[in-house]
């Protein structure tokens, strides 16, 4: 009996170690009202929360798996760094930028863990030098398949990072300047924090069609029938932890939360593999 118990413990331990070293591919088919017919089938690769150099995935394997999918666009929704922009992290970004730019254009926004390194322009320059376009309270028009879509990137602020009381009337998109020709284009918002989803949708004159987010790590520990246990900024039993959500006031607007490719200060994920998302618009 002791040997059986020991064997079970070893199997469980090996499983959890393995689970923390692999990522899964999640797939979403998202209907966008009035999407231009040329853009139907457009595929977006969504990654988040790399926390370099504390990422848990092999970057070469990550690049190879993304390349196999042939996405039209790659987005990174924040928390790219966790311990400064040293030589190792610059090499990591160089590899990702060079390898993935051969596949599709890459756009990124900042997250709370990036904030300490964003004084001055080193954070932005590091990414852009290696082919990763940065959006900091900015909108960019991207030509894909002969048509344009608009990517909007929300910049991380100390207010968001500190989880100060944020009024429900807060317009997070107030600093983003939109061009007249953007108004009737499909708009995708990249925003690290999912907990402000309804404010992104309801408190702005900018009509977004889809929000892509990260930050929660899927709740870090997930339990059957319960979901994520904890998410920073939401506390225990978070409502926004992972997956697809519809806006309560505007159900046509969806948000997808990515589980990320690293861990928090609690170093293990439980029943919660890392993730790369692939989103197809139709």
TrEMBL record:
<dbReference type="InterPro" id="IPR004843">
    <property type="entry name" value="Calcineurin-like_PHP"/>
</dbReference>
<feature type="domain" description="Calcineurin-like phosphoesterase">
    <location>
        <begin position="42"/>
        <end position="218"/>
    </location>
</feature>
<dbReference type="InterPro" id="IPR051158">
    <property type="entry name" value="Metallophosphoesterase_sf"/>
</dbReference>
<keyword id="KW-0472">Membrane</keyword>
<protein>
    <submittedName>
        <fullName>Metallophosphoesterase</fullName>
    </submittedName>
</protein>
<dbReference type="GO" id="GO:0016787">
    <property type="term" value="F:hydrolase activity"/>
</dbReference>
<keyword id="KW-1133">Transmembrane helix</keyword>
<dbReference type="Pfam" id="PF00149">
    <property type="entry name" value="Metallophos"/>
</dbReference>
<dbReference type="InterPro" id="IPR029052">
    <property type="entry name" value="Metallo-depent_PP-like"/>
</dbReference>
<keyword id="KW-0812">Transmembrane</keyword>
<feature type="transmembrane region" description="Helical">
    <location>
        <begin position="6"/>
        <end position="24"/>
    </location>
</feature>
């Amino acid at each position: 009996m002791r040997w059986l118990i020991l064997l079970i413990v070893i199997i469980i331990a090996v499983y959890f170690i393995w689970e923390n070293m692999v990522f899964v591919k999640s797939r979403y088919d998202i209907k966008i009202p009035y999407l231009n017919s040329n853009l139907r089938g457009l595929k977006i690769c969504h990654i988040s929360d790399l926390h370099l150099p504390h990422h848990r995935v092999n970057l070469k394997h990550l690049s190879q798996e993304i390349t196999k999918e042939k996405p039209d666009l790659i987005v990174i929704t924040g928390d790219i760094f966790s311990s400064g922009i040293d030589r190792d992290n610059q090499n990591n970004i160089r590899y990702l930028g060079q390898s993935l730019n051969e596949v599709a254009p890459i756009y990124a926004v900042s997250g709370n863990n990036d904030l300490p390194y964003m004084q001055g322009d080193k954070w932005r320059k590091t990414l852009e030098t290696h082919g990763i376009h940065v959006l900091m309270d900015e909108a960019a028009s991207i030509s894909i398949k002969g048509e344009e879509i608009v990517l909007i990137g929300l910049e991380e602020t100390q207010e968001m990072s500190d989880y100060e009381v944020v009024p429900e009337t807060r317009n997070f998109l107030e600093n983003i300047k939109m061009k007249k020709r953007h108004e009737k284009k499909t708009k995708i918002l990249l925003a690290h924090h999912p907990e402000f989803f309804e404010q992104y949708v309801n408190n702005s004159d900018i009509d977004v069609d889809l929000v892509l987010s990260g930050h929660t790590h899927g709740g870090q520990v997930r339990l059957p029938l319960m979901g994520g246990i904890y998410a920073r900024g939401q506390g225990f039993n978070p409502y926004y932890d992972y997956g697809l959500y519809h806006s309560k006031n505007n159900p046509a607007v969806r948000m997808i939360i990515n589980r990320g490719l690293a861990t928090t200060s609690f170093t293990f994920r439980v029943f919660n593999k890392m993730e790369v998302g692939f989103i197809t618009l139709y």
